[in-house]
Amino acid sequence: MKTCVPKKENIDKKWWLVDADGKILGRLASEISLLLRGKKKPQYVDFMDTGDFVVVVNAEKVKVTGNKMTQKKYYSHSGYPGGIKYKSLQQVLGKNPEDVIKNAVWGMIPKNRLGRSQFKKLKVYKGPSHPHDAQKPQRYQLEDES
Fold this sequence. Notes:
The chain is of the alpha/beta class and 146 residues long. The chain has a domain at 14-63 and 97-139: CATH 3.90.1180.10. It contains five helices and six strands. It has helices spanning 25-37, 68-71, 89-95, 97-106, 113-119; strands at residues 15-19, 53-57, 73-77, 84-88, 122-124, 138-139. The protein has a four-stranded parallel sheet, covered by helices on one side. The chain has a two-stranded antiparallel ribbon with strand order 3-4. Helix 3 crosses helix 4 (97-106). The longest helix is centred in the first third of the chain and has 13 residues, at 25-37. It is globular and about 55 Å long.
């Protein structure tokens, strides 16, 4: 028996359109990360980029459960003593809602060269319009939307 390893030119990369309107942030991010990594494909191997492109629209309308809107913090540090800064989820959603989804998805993919190349296939947009109509993305039905 032999293990079938797909060739790079034989991997079919699709474009998926995901609408984030009213979706829970963590569940949305986990579905997106599975698409980016290609784990829902039969030819998935963990050492190759077999994933698809994902376009997320309506990033500003994503929801969270509980008190995360005020209690969840995004930290950054300048490297100097006392240089820590933080913003709440509510502040980040008000200014850059795309960053909220990107940050959640980035936490669910590998932190290496392969993960960075997979992450580049994620396109997130604030509103309902996107510039990827030429790629004809298919609408993706999330698992909880039977």
